[in-house]
């Protein structure tokens, strides 16, 4: 069994759902054009939105193949930190309950990626 099996499973489901659903629903295009472009990223908003979703999608496969774990984690943490700054910070801490759309979920995901970085990876080779 892979180290951090449950952590990898949870991150994979979250990243898959966050990327695949928004691609098929068209939300990724709306996020790029209707949000990112309007806050100063024009004309790159659409491309940035797609880059985020593709990073999430490819991260799933890299996490399970034990490749580029540090790079995957750093890229996703960077995206999550930018999400906190541009979207969630103004809404406070809570995602639900004491508020809505807050930073708590992003903070938890950042900690999960930190755990992946700092867990010693399995040896690849056998004698």
UniProtKB/TrEMBL annotation:
Top-level lineage group: Bacteria
Keywords in alphabetical order: Membrane, Transmembrane, Transmembrane helix
Residues that span the membrane, as ranges: 44-64, 71-87, 93-118
Name under which the protein is recorded: Putative oxidoreductase
